[in-house]
Structures are given as structure tokens and as C-alpha cells.
């Protein structure tokens, strides 16, 4: 293992200038990668992990970003010193890249096959026919069935996982020495994630490519990499063999990252729902149908469930399983084709006017994307005050403000920030604002749709605990929706598993976790255990 | 709990210090820091106040001719020269500005009000409401609007009010389309869902959540519409449907100036300059307003600093 490293980065420093203020995005980052080795770069958003990869390939946004120091030796030349022209010969040929979102990194107007063979046509003297043959061969190897026919399809005809497979084929077609994968699985479903990781690993082993895997997901990094670099705010705080870092982390930040993911059952203190607690919400035979291109598509099919007072019902499922649509049906954001929802034995479908407004006061929602769910042109004070004013929960400006302040304190925000706008907050803080807005009307049921999946791991745990604490203090019930089984296990008293619009299994969380009945549930749980 | 109460009372006092901070207050603060936009604002205020005071300030009467003098270049008696009939150009520019600015602002205001409301309702309600509303827009678009305007004039005779109405009624169509597109994208944002879940009515959501978020493109379009309307008025006047001689407007002055461009260039240069200055001022002001109304833009950073 003491061979010459293929890429050797020393003291890479990148400085961003934003509105006249300089900040160091990457500070003296060093690492080596040998032929055929897999290196993981782990960190939360803003840790500089993507910036450092982009710096190596000359993809930094100019003129805001500037490489102020360091070197990156690749085959006897310093990548950071190369001209754009020289770099272009390396980029895509010797070092290629796979991006996070296969939706946006492929051009929707160009056929998959043409995109896959493009790097080969650019970088070698292959004829179109040779390139096409090679592309089909590779598409086949990355697991696209019937590659010759699929070659002529457009990106929208591919699923997310298949697009990511095609991206990998495209990155490998020039037989590069190094493959940089920036969060290659973060936009994919868990079951697909694991297939893509498997594929990356196989390709890397078969071809002896060196793989740089950038990820915020410790589970992913642990499964695939030989060694890793942990980054925190631009600084690499820990480097070492993956196994070693995971068993004996040396730096407190690494420890914090490792501790952040709850892999436990729901804490005892939050399990207090008596068996005979009254049922708040009853849903029977819900069916929601959309028409997509004039064809009916059943998003939710015959789903029934109930939520008792003080209980957290977890709903797990992958994207497209209908879990979000189900929550929208309960909130009357979409209309149901069949079935009924009863809140305290009152049907919600026919509510109008004052009765509907009362229902809106009883059931509240926390959304996935904390930035998108807050109006960017309202101050945090006004955002939280809006439901208070609307439902007349306080009289006069002073009383409203006092209530806003109390709510901000409840969710752990400093009241001094009341006059700031959402963009001035971090994602976790925005989610706290959204939670404050939701509990402002003193609801009895809170629906949380992936409330932490857009947040960094260390923040996730804080927000989850805040939600549990609020439920206990205010005696709320909650429907907690997530694709992440570990998170649901930590939060929910009972869990329901959704697949293709149906609820295939439900029961007490620990019972389902210990002895799942359905094959699909077992698969989810086993994937979960790998990354644990 | 008592501790908590004390805390909140204390912070309440801190916050009251800044209370009343709203989007509009903040926007004004930000606008004031943008020197270019403030310059634009002052220029516009200057032009508007001159227009208002023209009847008392104008050096001559707009219809007073001096046929013996004829067209003469700038002099002490006539600062900007005179036209072919010997009328003082400065006077005519001042009176023309009254017409041009009034038409520009009034017609744009009509198109702004109608277009924005129409676009928001169509975009937000969607479905069949949207389909019907936008088909109406399509049909009006398809009408040759010159014929439409001429018909209006023929039926109702010539009046200033009709001129605003006619231009405004044509210009709102584009505004409605722009706004509708923006609203359709906004409607899918989670904060709109959050507002529905909170219990706000559709009208409340459109006013409080949609409207402030479409101000950017609307303002930019308005700054483009005002000069376009001024030129449109010149065209209508040229057809004999707008202001009639001896009255004038900037558009009319430019149109006549073009005819004698080679012999008496000042007759084109000065009206052209007046229109250009207005256009520049409006653009600076518009850009500044757009930035000021977006809390995400750098506070106070306008064109000057960037």
C-alpha cells in the first residue's frame, strides 16, 4: 500500500468573497489517494467538501471563489496551476465526476445514449459508431437492461436510480483514473441508494479506478470507503482508515457526527400513551387519484389508520409511496376520491367556513423544506404572528408579540431574532420557526412530513428531540412521515409502512422492527442495519 | 415558568424598540442606501414637480408663435431654441412633459392594477377559472389593437381619459401573463400550503403571500412599460388620435423633430434627451425597488456597490 499516490492534495485553501467579506471555505486540506483506493470526504453542509472537489477540477464559481494556496499533484502536474485548456484535457477524461442530482445533471433534451458517449467523442478519436458500441456496453454493465433500446430514450423516461446509473456509465466511459462522486446517492430512495453504492464499488474494483466519495451520510461512507477525511467548517478535523475512525474516533466533532444519528428505539420518557387513550383521528379507506397526462394514477389506495391522543404514528415509505399525498388528504390540501377522515368523530370532507377554520386550528403541519415553507418576504415575527392574529388567540399587537416571543422560546430561538427574515437563519433554525408557527394555534394533531431530511445530521437530532419534547409538554398527537426508518423508530409509538400507495404493514414500532411480516419491510430494516 | 415570563417581558422591551419593522419599512431603508436608485427617485420627483408647476413657470405660452424668428438654436431668450413656427422649445417640452408623464403613469397604473389582479387570480385559482381568464387575454391579444383603439376613439370621441384607458387596456395583457406565470410557480411552494393549513382564505393568501413575492418582475416590467406607453402615445398622436396641436407631448415633439433632424437637430435632441433621462431614472429606480423589496438581496448594495 505504499505505492505512489495517484492524486496528492496538499494544503488546499479556498477563499470566498461575498459582499466584500472573505471567508475560508476550505482551509489547508490535505489528502492522498492511491490507485484503486476509495476515499470518503464526510461533512455537513457548508463544511467545504464539495468546494474542495470542485477546486480540483477548476469548477469553482468565479470570481467569488479563489484558490489562495496549496497544490494538487496528479501525474506530475499541479492541477491548481494548470491552464483552463490543459485542465479540460484532464477533466472528463482522466478525472470524471458524478453529481448529486441525476434530475438536473443530465440535459433533458438530449438522448441518454448521446450524453453517455459525449465524453468519449470529445476526448478520443473514436468514431460515433465505436462510441455508441462502447456506450451500450457500459450501460449494460451498470445494470441498464436492454441497453441498445434504452440508448435512444430521454432522461425523463429513466427513473432516478437509472439516471444515476447512466451518469456513472458516462463518467466511466473514458476509463478515467479517478472518479469523484459528490453525494451520488443523496437524491435517491434507500433501496436504490444501496444498489448504486454496490455498483460504484463493483465498478471501482473491476476497473481499478480511484474513487473519491463525498457525502454527509456516515452510513454510506462506512460501507464503501477505505479511508476518510472528516471536514468541519473547511477544516479537516480527522483523517484515517475508515474502520479505525468509526471504532475509535479521535476528534470530538467526529464523535458528535457518530452520535447524531439516533439508532435506538423511542426513549422511554416519551412513551406514555395509555392503551385506552381516546382516538383523535380516524381515517378510513382513503383513496386519492390524480390524472397525469389524462391517465388516472392512484397515489393513495384504500388506506386506513388512526391516531390516539398523545401518540406518534410513524409513516415510512420511499418516494412515490403516497405518504405525502396521504398527509395532504388529511389536511384537505388534495381532495379524496373515496374514504373519510374523522377528527374527534367529525368528518372533515364537508367542512366549510367557520368549521373548516376550526379544523385548521386543530391540525397543523411542518413541511420538509424549511426555507420553502416560510414566506421569504415576512419577518419571523410576522410568520409566527399570522396564525395567532387569524384565529384571534391574542388581543392587540403587544399581546401577539408576547405570544410570539413565548413560542420562539418554546422552540429554542432567541426572541431577539424576531425581526429577521428566514434567509438570515440556518436550515435548522428555519425548521424551528416552522414548528413555532405550527404550534402557535395550539393544535391537537401535528403532521410532520420529512421534517429533518433537509437538515444536517447533528441538527436532525436536536429538531427530533424538540418535537418529542413539545408533544409531551403540550399533549399533542403527531403523524410523522419519513423515508428514514431509523428516525421513525426513534420518534414513533406505532409505525405504518407504505408502498405503491398502499399501507402494507402497521403495528407497534418495536414489534414491527423486531418481527416484520412483509418482505418489503424486512428489506428496509436490513438496509437500515447495514448503515448502523 | 415565572422565570420564563420575566425573560419574555425583558425581551419584549428590546423588540418594541424596533417594532413596526415590515417589508415596506425595510424596503424604504434599503432603497435609501442605494444611491443610484435615490438619484432616479429625485430626478423623477423633479420632473413631476416641473410638470405640475408648468402653467406658472413656463417662460412663454405653448401656442405663442414667432413666425419671423422661425427655427432658431438655443439662445438667451429661448434656452432650448424654437421650432419652425418660432415656438419656444423649453415651454413646449414642459407642457409636453405634462402629457407624457400623465399618460405614462396613468396608463401604466391602469395596466398594473388590472394585469396584476387578473394574473394573480388566474394563476392562483388555476383550473377552469384560469382557463377562462387566460382565454379572454388570448382573444384580446389577437385583436389588432390599433383597430381597437381607433374604434374606441371613433365611438367615444376624443378625450384624454379615453387615451389612458385605451393604452392601459392594451398593456395589461402582457402584465397579466407575466404575473400568472410567476404565481403558478409560487403556488406550489410550501409556504402557500402552510398558509392554507393555517386557515387563511384564498384572498388573504393572494394578498399577503403571493403579491409581495411577485413584486420583483412586476416592478421591472412597469419600468419598461412607462417609456413604451409614452412612445405609444406619440404614435397615437401621429395618427391624430392623441393630443392635438398646438398641444404637444414628448412623443409628438420627437416625431416632428425627426422630420427636420438635419436642419434643426436641437428639435430632436432636447425632447429625446428628456425621454432618455426619464427612462434612465425609471430604470435605476426600478432596479433599486426590486432589490429593496427582496430581503434576500444584499442590504443596501445597489448598482453602485456591485
What kind of sheet is the major sheet of chain A? 6 strands, mixed
CATH superfamily of chain B: MetI-like
Question: Looking at CATH, which topology of chain B would you report?
Answer: MetI-like fold
Which architecture of chain B per CATH? Orthogonal Bundle
Structural commentary:
The complex is a heterodimer of chains A (about 525) and B (about 300). Helices cover about 35% and strands about 25% of the residues of chain A. By secondary structure, chain A is of the alpha/beta class. Chain A has 2 domains: about 250 residues, P-loop containing nucleotide triphosphate hydrolases (Rossmann fold, 3-Layer(aba) Sandwich), CATH 3.40.50.300; about 200 residues, Rossmann fold (3-Layer(aba) Sandwich), CATH 3.40.50. The model of chain A has no long low-confidence stretch (mean pLDDT about 90). Chain B is an all-alpha fold and about 300 residues long. Chain B is built from 12 helices and no strands. Chain B starts with a helix and ends in a 14-residue tail after the last helix. Chains A and B meet through helix 12, strand 16, helix 13 and helix 14 of A and helix 1, helix 8 and helix 9 of B.
What key phrases describe this protein's structure?
heterodimer; A: 532 residues; alpha/beta; Rossmann fold; 6-stranded mixed β-sheet; 26% strand; globular; B: 306 residues; mainly alpha; MetI-like fold; 12 helices; 72% helix; disordered C terminus
Summarize the structure.
Chain A is an alpha/beta fold. Chain A has two domains: 7-260, P-loop containing nucleotide triphosphate hydrolases (Rossmann fold, 3-Layer(aba) Sandwich), CATH 3.40.50; 310-323 and 351-531, Rossmann fold (3-Layer(aba) Sandwich), CATH 3.40.50.300. Chain A has helices at residues 49-56, 84-90, 112-123, 128-141, 147-150, 160-172, 190-207, 218-224, 242-247, 252-260, 323-330, 353-362, 380-390, 396-410, 427-439, 457-474, 485-491, 509-514, 519-531, and strands at 7-18, 21-33, 38-43, 65-74, 77-78, 95-98, 178-182, 210-215, 227-232, 235-241, 279-292, 295-308, 312-316, 338-343, 346-347, 363-366, 445-449, 477-482, 494-499, 502-508.
Amino acid at each position: 500500500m505504499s505505492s505512489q499516490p495517484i492524486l496528492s492534495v496538499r494544503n488546499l485553501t479556498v477563499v470566498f468573497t461575498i459582499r466584500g467579506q472573505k471567508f475560508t471555505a476550505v482551509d489547508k486540506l490535505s489528502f492522498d489517494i492511491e490507485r484503486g483506493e476509495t476515499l470518503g470526504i464526510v461533512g455537513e453542509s457548508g463544511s467545504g467538501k464539495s468546494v474542495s472537489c470542485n477546486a480540483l477540477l477548476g469548477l469553482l464559481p468565479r470570481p467569488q471563489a479563489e484558490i489562495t494556496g496549496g497544490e494538487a499533484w496528479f501525474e506530475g502536474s499541479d492541477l491548481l496551476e494548470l491552464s483552463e485548456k490543459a485542465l479540460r484535457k484532464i477533466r472528463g477524461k482522466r478525472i470524471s465526476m458524478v453529481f448529486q442530482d441525476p434530475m438536473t445533471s443530465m440535459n433533458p433534451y438530449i438522448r441518454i445514449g448521446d450524453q453517455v458517449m459525449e465524453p468519449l467523442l470529445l476526448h478520443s478519436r473514436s468514431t460515433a459508431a465505436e462510441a455508441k458500441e462502447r456506450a451500450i456496453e457500459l450501460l449494460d454493465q451498470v445494470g441498464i437492461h436492454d441497453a441498445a433500446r434504452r440508448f435512444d430514450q430521454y432522461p425523463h423516461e429513466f427513473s432516478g436510480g437509472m439516471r444515476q446509473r447512466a451518469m456513472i456509465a458516462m463518467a466511466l466511459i473514458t476509463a478515467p483514473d479517478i472518479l469523484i462522486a459528490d453525494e451520488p446517492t443523496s437524491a435517491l430512495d434507500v433501496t436504490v441508494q444501496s444498489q448504486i453504492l454496490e455498483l460504484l464499488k463493483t465498478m471501482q474494483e473491476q476497473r481499478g479506478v480511484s474513487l473519491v466519495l463525498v457525502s454527509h451520510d456516515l452510513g454510506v461512507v462506512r460501507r464503501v470507503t477505505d479511508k476518510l477525511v472528516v471536514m468541519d467548517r473547511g477544516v479537516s478535523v480527522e483523517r484515517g482508515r475508515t474502520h479505525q475512525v468509526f471504532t475509535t474516533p479521535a476528534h470530538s466533532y467526529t464523535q458528535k457526527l457518530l452520535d447524531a444519528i439516533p439508532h435506538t428505539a423511542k426513549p422511554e420518557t416519551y412513551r406514555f400513551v395509555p392503551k385506552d387513550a381516546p382516538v383523535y383521528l380516524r381515517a378510513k379507506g382513503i383513496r386519492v387519484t390524480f390524472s397525469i397526462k389524462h391517465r388516472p394514477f392512484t397515489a393513495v389506495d384504500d388506506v386506513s389508520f388512526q391516531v390516539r391522543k398523545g401518540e406518534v404514528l410513524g409513516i415510512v415509505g420511499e418516494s412515490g409511496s403516497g405518504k405525502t399525498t396521504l398527509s395532504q388528504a388529511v389536511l384537505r390540501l388534495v381532495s379524496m376520491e373515496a374514504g373519510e377522515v374523522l377528527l374527534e368523530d367529525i368528518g372533515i370532507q364537508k367542512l366549510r367556513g367557520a368549521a373548516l377554520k376550526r379544523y385548521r386550528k386543530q391540525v397543523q403541519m411542518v413541511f420538509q423544506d424549511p426555507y420553502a415553507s416560510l414566506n421569504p418576504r415576512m419577518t419571523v415575527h410576522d410568520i409566527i404572528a399570522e396564525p395567532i392574529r387569524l384565529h384571534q388567540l391574542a388581543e392587540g399587537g403587544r399581546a401577539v408579540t408576547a405570544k410570539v416571543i413565548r413560542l420562539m422560546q418554546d422552540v429554542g430561538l432567541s426572541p431577539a431574532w424576531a425581526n429577521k427574515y428566514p434567509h438570515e437563519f440556518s436550515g435548522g433554525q428555519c425548521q424551528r420557526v416552522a414548528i413555532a408557527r405550527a404550534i402557535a394555534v395550539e393544535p391537537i394533531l401535528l403532521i410532520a412530513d420529512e421534517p429533518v431530511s433537509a437538515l444536517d445530521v447533528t441538527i436532525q437530532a436536536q429538531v427530533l428531540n424538540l418535537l418529542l419534547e413539545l408533544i409531551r409538554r403540550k399533549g399533542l398527537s403527531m403523524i410523522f412521515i419519513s423515508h428514514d426508518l431509523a428516525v421513525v423508530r426513534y420518534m414513533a409509538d406505532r409505525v405504518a409502512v407504505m408502498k405503491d400507495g398502499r399501507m402494507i404493514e402497521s403495528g407497534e414500532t418495536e414489534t414491527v422492527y423486531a418481527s416484520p411480516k412483509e418482505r418489503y419491510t424486512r428489506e428496509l430494516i436490513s438496509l437500515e442495519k447495514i448503515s448502523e | 415558568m415565572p422565570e420564563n415570563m420575566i425573560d419574555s417581558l425583558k425581551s419584549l422591551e428590546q423588540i418594541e424598540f424596533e417594532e413596526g419593522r415590515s417589508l415596506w419599512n425595510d424596503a424604504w431603508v434599503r432603497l435609501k442606501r442605494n444611491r443610484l436608485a435615490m438619484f432616479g427617485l429625485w430626478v423623477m420627483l423633479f420632473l413631476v414637480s416641473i410638470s405640475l408647476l408648468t402653467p406658472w413657470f413656463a417662460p412663454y405660452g405653448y401656442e405663442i408663435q414667432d413666425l419671423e424668428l422661425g427655427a432658431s438654436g438655443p439662445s438667451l431668450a429661448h434656452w432650448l431654441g424654437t421650432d419652425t413656427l418660432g415656438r419656444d422649445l423649453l415651454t413646449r417640452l414642459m407642457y409636453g412633459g405634462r402629457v407624457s408623464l400623465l399618460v405614462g403613469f396613468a396608463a401604466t397604473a391602469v395596466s398594473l392594477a388590472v394585469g396584476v389582479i387578473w394574473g394573480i387570480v388566474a394563476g392562483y385559482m388555476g383550473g377552469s377559472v384560469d382557463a377562462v381568464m387566460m382565454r379572454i387575454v388570448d382573444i384580446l391579444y389577437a385583436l389588432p389593437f390599433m383597430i381597437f383603439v381607433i374604434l374606441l376613439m371613433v365611438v367615444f370621441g376624443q378625450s384624454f381619459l379615453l387615451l389612458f384607458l385605451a393604452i392601459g387596456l392594451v398593456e395589461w395583457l402582457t402584465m397579466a401573463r407575466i404575473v400568472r406565470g410567476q404565481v403558478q410557480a409560487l403556488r406550489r411552494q410550501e409556504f402557500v400550503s402552510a398558509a392554507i393549513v393555517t386557515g387563511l382564505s384564498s384572498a388573504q393568501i393572494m394578498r399577503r403571500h403571493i403579491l409581495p413575492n411577485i413584486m420583483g418582475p412586476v416592478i421591472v416590467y412597469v419600468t419598461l412599460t412607462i417609456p413604451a406607453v409614452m412612445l405609444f402615445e406619440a404614435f397615437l398622436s401621429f395618427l391624430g388620435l392623441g393630443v392635438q396641436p398646438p398641444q404637444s407631448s414628448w412623443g409628438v415633439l420627437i416625431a416632428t423633430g425627426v422630420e427636420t433632424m438635419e436642419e434643426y437637430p436641437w428639435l430632436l435632441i432636447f425632447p429625446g434627451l428628456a425621454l432618455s433621462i426619464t427612462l434612465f431614472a425609471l430604470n435605476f429606480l426600478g432596479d433599486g425597488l426590486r432589490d429593496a423589496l427582496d430581503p434576500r438581496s444584499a442590504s443596501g448594495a445597489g448598482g453602485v456597490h456591485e
